[in-house]
Amino acid sequence: MVKPFLPQLVYVEPGALAYPLGQELLHKFEQLNIEIRQTTSHNQIRNLPGETEFQRYRIAKSTLVLGVRKTLKFDTSKPSAEYALPLVTGCMGHCHYCYLQTTMGSKPYIRTYVNLEEILDAAQQYMLERAPEVTRFEASCTSDIVGVDHLTHTLKKTIEYFGRSEYGKLRFVTKFAHVDHLLDANHQGRTRFRFSINADYIIKNFEPGTSSLTDRIEAAVKVANAGYPLGFIIAPIYLHEGWQEGYTSMMKKLSELLPDSAKRGLTFEMIQHRFTKPAKRVIQQNYPMTKLELEESKRKWKWGRYGIGKYVYTDIEQEEIKDTLGHLIHTYFPESTIEYFT
Predict the structure, then answer these.
(1) What are phi and psi of 237, to 5 degrees?
(2) Cα(257)–Cα(262) distance, rounded to whole angstroms?
(3) Angle, nearest 10°, between helix axes 243-257 and 315-332?
(4) Which of the listed CATH numbers 3.80.30.30, 3.20.20.10, 3.40.50.1000, 3.40.50.620 matches domain 69-341?
(5) Could you tell me the residue ranges of all domains in the chain?
């Protein structure tokens, strides 16, 4: 099993210590004898350890910044939710294909925001604007928050906040199995706990540093037994030799390990592999030995958000993906719902 994340290096922004959570986390890392550095701002972080860019990148991925979220205007998060809830930025995983490769740019360290109450107050304002409609918030747009929450408990507090909420619901997705501290959270069924799953080929070759498929499913069983609404994101759906057999094996394993009680009310989301030209450059720089297929001529070009084009599978391939995985989902989980394919 992958060990829970522990940073090698912690930076503290000065404003972070004005909040109880900032002081609590500083004390925790001092007790753990982790190197702590002060910084005027995360943008001023320089001179990370390492003799090469390759080494510095990997150390950055194990660096945690205690920061303050100053921008309380939330991004939209379609089709998953109405808004992204900014609790953490960055991820300790090393998924080759991840879009954070480019959105994080040269700053791939993890930032956890200690002004949680201010963030949740802002969420409340968004809820009131749409009331009495329910507003959904996605907590994993810019991170895998479960991967760091055993240290911060920010997510746990947020789950309980939404448990008391009248007009809000919370969603997040993870590739990590470190969920035990979240099982007793008073969620009141208002948080959908989702796991990212994939064929063994993709997890083995492109998702280093994350939990295995078996460990993710076993964690999902715990989550279901704790009464959370449960879901799975199959992402990125990646076409490789024998992909139909790989995804069939994945679905079969999921069906065998999940108890029948956990199969009712499941949701599935399907996201095909895509990449941009900037992402391709960064991926090949950070993971020069990757087996990830990034040949533009084999793909269809499509406009993306913010006017940046991306390469997706051809229309014929997309139809085959939808037909194959849709059939597998309906075969093994006839009572589930497919929320979208993108």
Answers:
(1) -70, 120
(2) 10
(3) 20
(4) 3.80.30.30
(5) 69-341
Q: CA–CA separation, 79 vs 85, rounded Å?
A: 14
Q: What is residue 16's DSSP assignment?
A: G
Q: Across the strands, what pairs with 137?
A: 83, 170
Phi-psi region of 13 (alpha: psi -120 to 50; beta: other; left: phi over 0): beta
Model confidence, pTM: 0.95
Distance CA(119)–CA(98), nearest Å, equals: 25
| pLDDT per position as a tens digit, 51-61 | 787 788 888 89
pLDDT at site 43: 67
Tokens standing for 320? 């085959």
For residue 11, which amino acid is it? Y
CA distance 275 to 279: 6
pLDDT tens digits, one per residue of 136-155: 999 999 999 999 999 999 99
Maximum separation of any 2 CA atoms in the chain, in Å: 56
